[in-house]
Amino acid sequence: MLSFDPDKVSLPDGHYIAGQRRQCPGNRFAVKRPSDGRVAGELTEASAGVVDDAVCVADRALKDSGWASCSPRQRGAVLQRWATLIEADSQLPLLEALGSTRPIFDVVHHEIPFTAAAIRFYAECADKYSGDVFPTRDASLGMLVPEPYGVIGAITPWNFPLSMASWKCGPALAAGNAVVLKPSELTPYSTIRLAELAVEAGLPAGILNIVQGSGAVSGSALVAHPLVRKVSFTGSTLTGARIMSDAAYHGMKPVTLELGGKSPQLVFDDAGEVTDVAERILRGFTANGGQACVAGTRLIVQRGIADALISQLITRCQDFRPGLTWDENSRYAPVIDRRQAEKIQQIVDAASLQGGEILVGGQRFADTGDGYFWQPTLIANVSPDSPALQEEIFGPVLTIQIFDEEEQGLALASHPTYGLCAGVHTKNLDRALRAMRGIAAGTVWINRYGRSGDFIIPTGGFHGSGIGKDLGRQAFEACRRYKSVLIDF
Fold this sequence. Notes:
Elements: E1 15-17, E2 20-22, E3 28-32, E4 39-44, H1 48-65, H2 72-88, H3 91-99, H4 104-125, E5 132-134, E6 140-148, E7 151-155, H5 161-174, E8 178-182, H6 189-200, E9 208-210, H7 215-224, E10 228-234, H8 237-249, E11 255-258, E12 264-267, H9 274-286, E13 298-302, H10 303-317, H11 338-353, E14 357-360, E15 377-380, H12 387-390, E16 397-403, H13 406-413, E17 418-419, E18 421-425, H14 429-438, E19 443-446, E20 462-463, E21 466-467, H15 472-477, E22 480-488
Parallel strand pairs: 7-8, 7-10, 8-9, 10-11, 12-13, 12-18, 13-16, 15-16, 18-19
Antiparallel strand pairs: 1-2, 3-4, 5-6, 6-22, 11-21, 14-15, 17-20
Helix pairs in contact: 1-7, 2-4, 2-6, 3-4, 3-6, 4-5, 9-10
């Protein structure tokens, strides 16, 4: 049985620095449970001084522990043990389900296995990728030697707290770096437990530190710290732009930015069985209550299949039911908080005022108290300049546009700001490849929508959707800097 009583879960308090939970003076902030809006607990925001302490601890731990200089296989072994502890821990699923938008069923059957698998992937990377030896004249030797950056600052979002932490920590630690991670102040708890398990697995204390607080205070201090040599961030495009600017100003440090999206699902009339296509479209914009940067929230459908597909989607949207994240029967995620629910409402209302037709949904589920569960929503006849088409909503809202010719569909699929990912649904291989080439997006899924468990495939966007890649060997290599060496003998 997976259901549990959230009031009986012991919540970790404070920051996690040098292998210990640490209380520090500062401004207190409340952490609310998304499912019912009740306050789960309070934490203290990490001031610039607390962030400085965490970063300096990480820097000293690198020098004293030998983590950066030990054999890559040793680092890999620690990460493998960490993954095993993640899978076996009984507290981690409760903290994730209680404090985030992830239902306990999804946490146990997806989030925990996914997080552990990501750590294992990077454990294997530790001793699989090396430098290069270059052809030079006979009396010399040219080499490219990789080395860790040192301390990496990581900032993770609230929508997938555990898996996003694994994306940041896995490659950075495998490459021999230390990490100071700031989780979202909305979902702070599970990351603390994750760090405790890392130390239990053999990671030297201080190599992974967690600081709690807002982006404006704690996050800014982390990005600006002179001992932070690289920054990795997942979140909004606006915040990513600020981080990029701050990182350039405070030391010209490299950044990996996985940012927002407004991704198209381009459906041609030769896409195949309508029920299968409808299921893919549905998952693409309702997973985690639509709160995913990769959410496929723009349906661009060819006229010949449009009526049948839309009818299927309307019917399926009506089947969703809200449920508390600590109830094992729940499958549909709440919106993270009131502020996010109000943003969704404003964009849906604006689309309606501009002539958009709400086919289904368009409001919160009734009788959910202070939990914000948003009905899956379809909007047709959307004005081209509507925020529903232009802005990342981060909720289960799908706009619908109909096209006749392939070129028209490809033109609608483009976006002036974002280029994170796209879905293309067609049985015609030539058409699929033309669409893949024609859509400016860092990831294109064909006849599917969403990532697989193949961690070798990187993810990252174009344009306002980011810089660099998470996952894949690209994420591992981005956590190392490369030194050119030329030896005469």
